[in-house]
């Protein structure tokens, strides 16, 4: 792991702020230390098959492309 990496946390649809995720989907937050600045948080989302998405909008687009109706 990089020395700049402070922490990694995982979330599912039961986590505060991630209630919008479907069951079996996982969100990952990577918090990176930044010199003399506030930490940067990178978010990644994984579907049940392990495919990675870089944003909530990508996740919702994938759901819509598969025929799911997403209400944001």
Which helices and strands appear, and what pairs or packs with what?
Blueprint: E1 5-11, E2 26-32, E3 40-46, E4 52-53, H1 56-65
Antiparallel strand pairs: 1-2, 2-3, 3-4
How many helical stretches? 1
The CATH level-2 architecture is identified as 2-Layer Sandwich
Helix content percent band = 10-25%
Report how far the terminal alpha carbons are from each other: 35 Å
Oligomer: single chain
Tell me the fraction of residues in β-strands, as a range: 25-35%
| CATH T-level topology | Methyl-cpg-binding Protein 2, Chain A
- Give the overall shape, derived from the CA principal axes: elongated
Can you write the helix and strand succession as a string?
EEEEH
Largest sheet: 4 strands, antiparallel
The low-confidence parts are: none
Beta strands, count: 4
CATH superfamily: Methyl-cpg-binding Protein 2, Chain A
CATH class: Alpha Beta
Q: How would you classify the helix and strand content by structural class?
A: alpha+beta
Computed Rg: 14 Å
Keywords: DNA-binding, Nucleus, Transcription, Transcription regulation
Subcellular location: Nucleus
Main location: nucleus
GO molecular function, one term: DNA binding
């Amino acid at each position: 792991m990089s020395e700049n990496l402070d922490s990694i946390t995982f979330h599912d649809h039961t986590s505060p702020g991630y209630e919008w995720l479907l069951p079996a989907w996982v969100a990952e937050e990577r918090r990176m230390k930044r010199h003399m600045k506030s930490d940067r948080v990178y978010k990644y989302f994984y579907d049940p098959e392990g495919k990675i998405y870089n944003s909530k909008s990508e996740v919702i687009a994938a759901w819509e492309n598969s025929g799911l109706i997403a209400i944001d």
